[in-house]
UniProtKB/TrEMBL annotation:
This is GNAT family N-acetyltransferase. It comes from the Bacteria. SUPFAM superfamilies: Acyl-CoA N-acyltransferases (Nat). Pfam families: Acetyltransf_3. Its EC number is 2.3.-.-. InterPro entries: Acyl_CoA_acyltransferase (IPR016181), GNAT_dom (IPR000182), Ribosomal_N-acetyltransferase (IPR051908). The lineage of its organism: Bacteria, Bacillati, Actinomycetota, Actinomycetes, Kitasatosporales.
Length: 184
């Protein structure tokens, strides 16, 4: 799936182990994901297999974000369907340091959001972002998500429970980022 002219979203591959290695060295990514905090090939392979299992079982759609020019993976975005029976799904994303600041996270979020709302017909999408993470919040708002509130002690991050700001987007919200969210 194209995320603009410079990046594509694709299923995870075993060739993505260098991305898992770089992400495992990030001080934050292993705290909020299932990326192994201590890298080993076995742990990285298990991570990739979990992504395949999530897709195969219908738990969600995990994608590697890959730079087109050199086919280098630089991040991840996933659409998680655990709450789909209630008419909502969550999106989570992360980017390694070497991929930040290029607009790729915004493009990936815009792509997955449009696909989920238009093609899959999901009524509500939501993101959970720590209040201090202003870069991630700015990306969400730029794509059309609205901050809806603060969930105190919502999620375990590392060894503590942390607050999360919730951002939502409905398929009835109308234009997002200058484009219609749903096809009329």
């Amino acid at each position: 799936m194209s995320a603009g002219p410079d990046f594509v979203l694709r299923p995870w591959e075993m060739s993505d182990l260098p991305l898992v290695r770089e992400a495992s060295q990030d001080p934050y990514i292993p705290l909020i994901t299932t990326i192994p905090a201590r890298y080993s090939d076995a742990a990285a392979e298990a991570f990739v297999r979990r992504q395949w299992e999530r897709a195969a079982t219908g738990a969600g759609y995990p994608f590697a974000i890959v730079r087109s020019r050199d086919r280098r993976p630089v991040g991840s975005i996933g659409l998680w369907l655990r709450e789909l029976p209630e008419g909502r799904a969550s999106i989570g994303y992360w980017m390694v340091a070497s991929g930040r600041g290029q607009g790729v996270t915004r493009a990936a979020l815009r792509t997955v959001t449009s696909w989920a709302l238009r093609d899959l017909g999901i009524p509500r999408l939501q993101l959970f972002i720590e209040p201090w993470n202003t870069a991630s919040a700015r990306i969400a708002v730029d794509v059309g998500y609205r901050r809806e509130g603060l969930l105190r002690g919502w999620q375990r991050v590392g060894d503590e429970r942390r607050d999360m700001a919730v951002y939502g987007l409905l398929n009835t919200d109308g234009p997002a980022d200058g484009r219609a969210v749903t096809a009329d």
